[in-house]
Write a structure and sequence with these properties.
Elements (H helix, E strand, L loop, with lengths): L4 H16 L5 H18 L3 E4 L14 E6 L5 E10 L12 E4 L5
Antiparallel strand pairs: 1-2, 2-3, 3-4
């Protein structure tokens, strides 16, 4: 499957998270996933909105995390990523699974 460079960076960042996990509950999984996404959004110069994360542009905007792209005149041009945590009731589900939608979906 072909991914653009940002999609590939997201995949690589998220694939590293389980190696750091140590008896994490849902809150820790969600926080680590959202931290990685926030860092990548800022790296690519998007306005990142999420609650309680350092370096973001503001609090939640419709979803738990949103990347927004604005024009020079501050018109909203694109919403490349929106995300929200999704708890799975299945015992083999990964806690803190994150649904990602928008221009990029995994």
């Amino acid at each position: 499957m072909h991914y653009d460079h940002i999609e590939q960076e997201i995949r690589e960042a998220l694939e590293k998270i389980p190696g750091r996990a140590s008896n994490w509950g849902e809150t820790e999984w969600t926080r680590n996933i959202k931290n990685e996404l926030a860092k990548l959004g800022k790296k690519h110069r998007y306005h990142v909105y999420a609650r309680d994360y350092d370096g973001v542009n503001g609090g939640e905007w419709l979803f738990d995390m949103t990347w927004l792209e604005y024009s020079e005149k501050e018109f909203l041009l694109d919403i490349p990523i929106v995300s929200f945590p999704k708890s799975e009731p299945h015992p083999k589900a990964v806690p803190g699974k994150l649904e990602i939608s928008g221009g990029r979906s995994f």
